[in-house]
Amino acid sequence: MDSIAARLGDRDPSEVLRETASQMQAFSEDLTFPWDQPYRDGGWTASDIAAHLADQEIGFSFRLRQAVAFKDQDHTTQPYDQDAWAKPYARLSHTVAVQAFVGLRAWNIARLATLDLQDWLASYHHPERGVEETVDELVRFQAGHDLHHLDQLRSLLRP
Questions:
Q1: DSSP for residue 79
Q2: Domain residue limits, the chain
Q3: What is the pLDDT of residue 1?
Q4: Distance between CA atoms of 153 and 159, rounded to whole angstroms?
Q5: Among 73, 93, 151, 156, which residue is least crowded by beta carbons within 10 Å?
Q6: Cα angle for residues 55, 57, 59 (degrees, 5° grid)
Q7: How far apart are CA 132 and CA 137, in angstroms?
Q8: Is residue 32 classed as helix, strand or coil in its secondary structure?
Q9: CA-based nearest residue to 98, from 40, 25, 26, 18
Q10: Residue of 113, 17, 108, 94 lying closest to 49 (CA atoms)
């Protein structure tokens, strides 16, 4: 199993997806949260991570909808370069990033609630990882990705 998805363990991915939105909102409301601080030397700042999560949610949203829409066809998802997408992060507001993430996540959670079993089993080719992936695996990856970045953000709260 992919190391990001493995972070999920036995947790319910839908619950993790909902909790991440709440946690990001809580970070955003904390006036003392260190948005300009990197989670490690040379790493992204908390603000960069918020922007990345908003961008990742766009990618997740598109892949989810494409996989379901084309479930009866061989479909290859469109890859994207997260480093290229990250170039403007330093000039973007963490507040707007969190708002975008929370809104997009709510929309995606609502969309996930409409899926039937065939939708969850729909698959597509993921060229970045060179695998066939189901919607279920995509959702598990997304939840593990959330946990990965939430750990980075929480590390900034430790003394």
A1: P
A2: 3-155
A3: 46
A4: 13
A5: 73
A6: 75
A7: 10
A8: coil
A9: 25
A10: 94
Rounded to 5 degrees, φ, ψ at 126 are -105, 100
pLDDT of 159: 63
- The reported pTM is 0.94
pLDDT tens digits, residue range 96-122? 999 999 999 999 999 999 999 999 999
Confidence at 5, pLDDT banded by 50, 70, 90: confident
CA distances from 109 to 70, 140, 141 (A): 20, 13, 15
The per-residue pLDDT for range 117-144, each reduced to its tens digit, is: 999 999 999 998 888 999 999 999 999 9
Query: CA torsion sign, 89 to 95 to 98 to 100?
Result: negative
Note whether 132 and 74 are within 8 A (CB): no
Sign of torsion over alpha carbons 19, 20, 25, 26? positive
The rounded distance, in Å, linking the Cα atoms of 33 and 50 is: 12
Choose the weakest-confidence range: 35-44, 73-82, 107-116, 136-145. Answer: 73-82
Strand partners, 46: none
Alpha carbon distances (Å) from 16 to 5, 69, 137: 12, 25, 14
- The CATH number assigned to the domain with range 3-155 reads 1.20.120.450
